[in-house]
C-alpha cells in the first residue's frame, strides 16, 4: 500500500507513520511532503493509494489539495487532519469527498481503522489491474501522454479524449484545430505508429472496459452509447477487432459477473 503524508510538522508526520507501521500485517511504502503544492508532483509520480494531509499548510491547504485531487481524479482516498473543529472545514472536506476528518491529537485506533479499510480494498483492485494488463496490454500499450509529442498532436489527442462520445472524425478534429487531415495523419503515424481509427478505439474501449468493470449493472447497449459507438453491434465489433473478446467475455474474465 502506497501512502503519502502531507504535513508541515515533521514530528507529526513521523508519528502518523509510526502508528501505521505498528500493524505488521500491512506492507506500506511511504512518501512525505511538507506542502500541498509539492505533494501534487509526488502524487503524479508515486500514485498513492491513500493520502493523509494536514489542513493548514503554506502554499496550498489540505482542503485545496483534496479539491484538486477530486477535480483531476488522481486519488479518491484522502484523510484530512486538523487542530480545528470548524464546521466550515468539515463541510468543505465532505464536498471534496475525503474519507474522514480527524482532529489532533490523532486518535490512534480511529486512524488504524481507516487505514485498514483502505488496505482491505486493495488486493482485489490490484488483482483486477493485473488481469487487465495481462489480457489487453497488446492493445493498450500506447503512450498518449508523452511530453515529447508536438503541440498539435497533444491537442488532437486531448480533443479525442474530450469528444470520444460524439461522432468525432479526422475531419472534425482537423477543422477544430485548423490542421490539414493529411498532416494530422502523419503526426499519428510518425509518433504513435497508429492511425486515427486505432486511437479513437483505444480511448473508447478504455472507457468501455472501465464501465464494464465498475458498473456491471449497465447493459452493453447503454455502454455503447456512452462511449460513442451508438449501437451495441459497433461496440461488439470493436471488442472483437481490438481485444479478441466480447464485452461480456471481458467482464467474465475480470471476475465481475454475478
Can you offer a commentary on this structure?
With 258 residues, the protein is an alpha/beta fold. 60% of the residues lie in helices and 9% in strands. It has a 5-stranded parallel beta sheet with strand order 2-1-3-4-5, with helices on both faces. Helix 9 packs across helix 12 and helix 10 packs across helix 11 (232-243). The two termini are 28 Å apart.
- Count the E strands: 5
Average of the residue pLDDT scores: 84
Specify the overall morphology.
elongated
- Could you tell me the radius of gyration in angstroms? 22 Å
Assign the structural class, choosing from mainly alpha, mainly beta, alpha/beta, alpha+beta, or little secondary structure.
alpha/beta
Helix residue percentage? 55-70%
Q: Distance between the terminal alpha carbons, to the nearest Å?
A: 28 Å
* Element-by-element helix/strand order: EHEHEHEHEHHHHHHHH
Q: Low-confidence spans: pLDDT under 50, at least 5 residues?
A: none
Across the major sheet, the strand order is 2-1-3-4-5
**Proportion of residues in β-strands:** 5-15%
Helical run tally? 12
Major sheet size, sense and barrel closure: 5 strands, parallel
